[in-house]
């Protein structure tokens, strides 16, 4: 042991002598970093503001007393996530699901790259394929092992081959194994109509893993137990396709079948906000967006970006206010019309009259004038999921710095902003509302945020 320590010290000395730091404390320098504004987002400079209702609480809910808080800087989507953007997520999951099934089928029949047919879609680490030393080691020690009683575990970590294009024309499927896989992705012929076979959306499942850092930091168990990261790893599996039936289920004795049939997939609604998305699906979208961006960053040799996530309730309200204190609406207020008598948001102005503002249902995500942070539809159109759990008394006990209630055991999640079917009260920037995390609605969507790297950018700078 003494020899090992002496050898280590000698090597450390030699390395130091051969370096270019001249023996000075210069720090460890990585790649030069430059902040990059995420596509479609705007910077919300952090600062302090008065959170809560500064005017009369007409509904007498009494869940938003005023409280001065401070939030850090962050980027936020300028618009709600649109159908087109969410479809990118769904298509990615569908593509990955098909490739995974093709690779598993190739594994089962022993097909390998170069053998033609389904073999071209085999796992990159499949037996017979040329492997790098790293892939060979991982295959021998991890990928080829697994729980035989858990079919998913046997393929955990295996690398898909994204190089060959998927063949979508049934007449050009290369072999029977490929046909079998593609057929498994669709509903049976007996459940099809109008001559169209429909993808079985229950097969479109996105799996991801995250670490519950909050639980790990608060764990008061012994150090040896606390250091086991696996204790705090959370594995999620989420069906990603929106629930299009919400257009019918949300409204009894109402004809909304065209919205059920066309709203999500038809290009006519591509720039409209996605709805029918649960809180869990919104969280899964954030995880995918992070994964998708960092895959590109890795390919280009760039540093990874911060994760995309849902905004906290305090962040959402701060962003909605657009830098204005004690305002009723994102545009100031207290009126929902401008000087020329035009409505400033998409909501239900009068009893039974949904179209007075020019729209019966939703409008395009980039509609009406943005607030002073260049954020569109922070009031009306669709309510928006936040990351925070709802507690009527939370304003009394949350921190004044980046307040949040991250209670995973509380299934009631805060939604903000009001929607196309709500009255003006719910459009107020201070009005709080909630919905169950596993609920999907025709009037709830979301937008994402990303933490700003650095602390020098605040709205309170002199």
UniProtKB/TrEMBL annotation:
InterPro entries associated with the record: CTDL_fold, Glid_motil-assoc_lipo_GldK, Sulfatase_Mod_Factor_Kinase, SUMF_dom, SUMF_sf
Recorded superkingdom: Bacteria
GO terms, molecular function: formylglycine-generating oxidase activity
Domain Sulfatase-modifying factor enzyme-like intervals: 40-97, 243-449
Pfam family, one: FGE-sulfatase
Assigned keywords, A-Z: Lipoprotein
NCBIfam families: GldK
Protein name: Gliding motility lipoprotein GldK
Originating organism: Flavobacterium album
């Amino acid at each position: 042991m003494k020899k090992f320590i002496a050898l280590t010290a000698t090597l450390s000395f030699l390395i130091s002598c051969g370096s270019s730091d001249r023996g000075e404390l210069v720090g460890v320098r990585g790649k030069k970093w430059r902040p990059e504004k995420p596509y479609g987002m705007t910077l919300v400079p952090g600062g302090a503001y008065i959170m809560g209702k500064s005017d009369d609480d007409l509904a007498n809910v009494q869940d938003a007393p005023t409280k001065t808080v401070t939030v850090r800087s962050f980027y936020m989507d300028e618009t709600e996530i649109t159908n087109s953007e969410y479809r990118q997520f769904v298509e990615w999951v569908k593509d990955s699901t098909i490739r995974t099934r093709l690779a598993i089928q190739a594994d089962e029949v022993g097909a390998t790259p170069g053998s033609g047919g389904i073999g071209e879609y085999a796992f990159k680490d499949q037996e017979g394929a040329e492997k790098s030393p790293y892939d060979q080691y991982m295959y021998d020690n991890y990928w080829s092992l697994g729980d035989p009683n858990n079919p998913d575990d046997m393929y955990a970590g295996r690398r898909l081959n994204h190089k060959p294009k998927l063949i979508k024309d049934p007449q050009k499927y290369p072999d029977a194994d490929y046909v079998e896989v593609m057929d498994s992705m669709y509903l049976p012929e007996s459940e099809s109509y109008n001559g169209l076979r429909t993808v079985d959306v229950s097969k479109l499942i996105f799996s991801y893993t995250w670490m519950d850092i909050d639980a790990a930091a608060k764990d008061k168990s012994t150090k040896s137990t606390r250091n086991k990261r696996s204790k705090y790893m959370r594995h999620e599996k989420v069906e990603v396709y929106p629930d299009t039936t919400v257009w019918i289920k949300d409204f009894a004795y109402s004809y909304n079948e065209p919205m059920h049939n066309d709203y999500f997939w038809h290009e006519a609604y591509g720039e409209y906000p996605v709805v029918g998305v649960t809180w869990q699906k919104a969280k899964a979208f954030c995880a995918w967006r992070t994964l998708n961006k960092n895959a590109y960053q890795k390919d280009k040799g760039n540093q990874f970006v911060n994760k995309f996530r849902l905004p906290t309730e305090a962040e959402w309200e701060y962003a909605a206010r657009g830098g204005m204190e004690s305002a009723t609406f994102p545009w100031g207020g207290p009126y929902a019309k401008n000087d020329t008598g035009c409505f400033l948001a998409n909501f239900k102005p009068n009893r039974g009259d949904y179209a007075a503002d020019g729209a019966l249902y939703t409008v395009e995500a980039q509609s009406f004038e943005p607030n002073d942070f260049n954020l569109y539809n922070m009031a009306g159109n669709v309510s928006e999921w936040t990351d925070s759990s709802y507690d009527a008394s939370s304003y009394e006990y949350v921190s004044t710095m980046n307040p949040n209630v991250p209670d995973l055991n509380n299934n009631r999640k805060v939604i903000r902003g009001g929607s196309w079917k709500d009255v003006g009260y719910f459009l107020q920037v201070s009005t709080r509302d909630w919905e169950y995390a596993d609920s999907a609605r025709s009037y709830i969507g979301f937008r994402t945020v990303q933490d700003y790297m650095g602390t020098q950018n605040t709205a309170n700078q002199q």
